[in-house]
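tool=predict chain=A
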Amino acid sequence: VSKARYLYHPVDLTFQSALLGRKHRVFVTDAIAEKSPPEKVLHTVREISPDVVLCLVGAASWDEDVEFIRRLRDVFAGSIVAAGDVFMEDPAGVMERLPGLDAVLLNFTSPGLSDWAPGEGEPVSGICERCGNYSDDLMLVEGSYLCGRCRSELI
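tool=predict ok
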C-alpha cells in the first residue's frame, strides 16, 4: 500500500541490502513500485527459496502487511524478519500480533540481520524470545534467541 501517488524510496531495505550483500546473496523485490500482487511475490519467494525474507510492515499498510505475512508463512518455511515504524514503540507486543514473524529489525543501519544466523554462536541484538526485552547479547539456545538473564535462569 502506498501512502500517496508517489513512492518513498525504501531506504531501510536499500541499506540492509548493502549490509547483507557483504556476506549473502540478496534478491530484492519492491512489490509497491513493481505493482506486483501478493500472489506474484509469494510465487517468487517459492521459486527463489531463500533462507530469510525481510519485509516492511507499516502503520499505513498494517492490514495488508498482516495478511501478506500470514500467507507468506503458509508457503515459506524459512525465517521471516520484519522492519518498520510499527515496531518502534512496543516491538514484542507487535510481534505477538504477527505470529508468522521470527525476528524484528529495529535499527535498519545495524548489521545484526547479516550476523543473525542459527548456530553461529555470536551474540546479536534484538528482542529476547522469552522475556520480550531488547538485548545486545542474544544467543541461540535450544532454538530461541535469549538474553543473558533468561539464559542464566535456565541453569
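The helical segments are 11-21, 38-48, 62-75, 91-97, 112-115, 148-153. The chain has six helices and six strands.
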